[in-house]
Amino acid sequence: MTLSPLTVISPALSETTAGICFLLILLVPFALVGLALINTGLGRSRSAAHSMMGSLMAIAVAVLVYFIFGFSWQGFAGGPHHAVIVGGKAWNWIAAQPFFMRGMEFNGSYSSLEALLQMFCVGLAVLIPLGAGADRWRLGAICASSALFAGLTYPLFGHWVWSDGWLAQLGMNYGLGHGFVDVGGSSSIQVVGGLTALSLAWILGPRRGKYSAEGMPAAVPGHNAVLVILGCLLATVGWCGLNSAGAILFIHAEAARCVLVTVNTMLAAASAGLTAAAITQIRFRKPDASLTANGWMGGLVASSAACAFVKPAAAVVIGIIAGALVTFAVEWFEFELKVDDPGGAISVHAIAGIWGILAVGILARFPVAPLFSGNLPGTDAGQWLAQLIGIATLIGFVLPLTYGLNWLLNRFYPQRVSIEGERQGMDLHELGADAYPDFVTHADEFIQR
Predict the structure, then answer these.
(1) Number of independent structural domains in the chain
(2) Which of 300, 319, 71 is nearest to 185 (CA)?
(3) Phi, psi at 241, each rounded to 5°
């Protein structure tokens, strides 16, 4: 095997398309706000300010680390990279960009818009583990873990999928469909973030009092359903921008394709939310707000991979299955695996994301005509196998990697708050002040019966 730097020329982006794409990217921060609100609402009231502060710090650290060297490992399609020569074929495994984005011209080109979108994407991805670590994850550890995520885990897998990496080359080099396809980040953002959430939930352990001596979980409901539902609505706006911008930048779709992408995103979210509400209505005689919200988010997550390549009816199917999967996965992780995940992050982002990846191989129909300014090589045959290889890489490589990195971090810098800090509440213990005044957090004392 030999190493060689390769460079591929990517197609030009018209000024009109670049402007549309830039506006779509500006919608993506709504997804960050939405996810931060969901994580906060599903946690305890005495950790609300800490959750929002943790979200802000995680985004700040991730963006800076990604700017310094994360983007150097990820790069962009058509940029310089290193490849391993195996069997006479070049398999691209890592980018070769300068640190600090040196040499990048921020002029509306593919590369500059990809860099901007990826800064928001990595910020969104680092928020996912906060839902699983709620009420017990130290602020300093959040920042340190986010740095590892943005500097290594995220850019490495992102390069394999979105920057002409070896997973994307499975079609060209090995004849597996069009290679691994993920339009808006079901794998690179959602599953990578969800597997990191699973790793941290294992390392942190459950909250005190969550499980009895017999292993039965206690109900610890979120403190503010209004924040959770508002977060879903804001996240939907951001997801429409994320999926549409991803279609333009990662598969080089024409801007007109964004209409179909947005329709499919909305249909998947709506059908998933209704499915979760129906399941909880049947099982508990009343719809559960938190599970419905998680189902809605699961639909958004699952929609991302195939949103540019499925018909609206197929998007509804994707959403229905995602809503059901999330609803039952939340219970399965809590009761069977004893994983304490207050925000349902593992179920929403990892499980629904994996389903979204599979949906590309099952339901996607790629255009035969030259619809795109940048063609996807290959045929539809073998697409499902390319998607399975991507899933196997996530479970077999990314999960051990992110677990190992956080395990090492935990050895040198314990990530879980002290027993006293958890009892006191994250707000008071780490920030010195509660998020809410006493009359909000102790409302039962003022209820007249």
Answers:
(1) 1
(2) 300
(3) -70, -40
Question: Could you tell me the two tokens for 75?
Answer: 């790069």
pLDDT 10s digits, 7-33: 334 457 788 999 999 999 999 999 999
Kindly indicate the confidence band of residue 444, based on its pLDDT and cuts at 50, 70 and 90: very low
Overall residue count recorded for the chain in this entry: 449
Rounded to whole angstroms, the Cα distance separating 322 from 320 reads 5
Query: Against a cut of 0.90, is the pTM above it?
Result: yes
Please report, for the domain that includes residue 116, its CATH number. Answer: 1.10.3430.10
Q: How far apart are CA 311 and CA 413, in angstroms?
A: 48
Residue 448 has pLDDT above 50, yes or no: no
Domain that holds residue 64: 15-103+110-212+227-429
Q: Are 417 and 137 in contact (CB under 8 A)?
A: yes
SS3 49: helix
Name the nearest CA neighbour of 223 among 427, 55, 446.
Answer: 427
pLDDT value of position 377: 56
Percent of the chain predicted with pLDDT > 70? 92
Question: 338: burial class by Cβ within 10 Å (0-12, 13-18, 19+)?
Answer: middle
Q: How many Å apart are CA 77 and CA 162, to the nearest integer?
A: 7
pLDDT of residue 6: 36
**Cβ pair 99, 72 in contact under 8 A:** yes
How many helices (H) and strands (E) are present in the chain, helices listed first? 20, 3
Does the structure show a pLDDT above 60 at 265? Answer: yes
Question: In this structure, what token pair is assigned to residue 17?
Answer: 């398309």
Whether 446 has a pLDDT exceeding 60, the answer reads no
Q: Cβ distance 291 to 343 under 8 Å?
A: no
Domain-embedded: residue 319: yes
Query: CA quadruple 377, 380, 381, 385: dihedral positive or negative?
Result: positive
Query: How far apart are alpha carbons 448 and 162 in whole angstroms?
Result: 58
Residue 114 falls inside a structural domain: yes
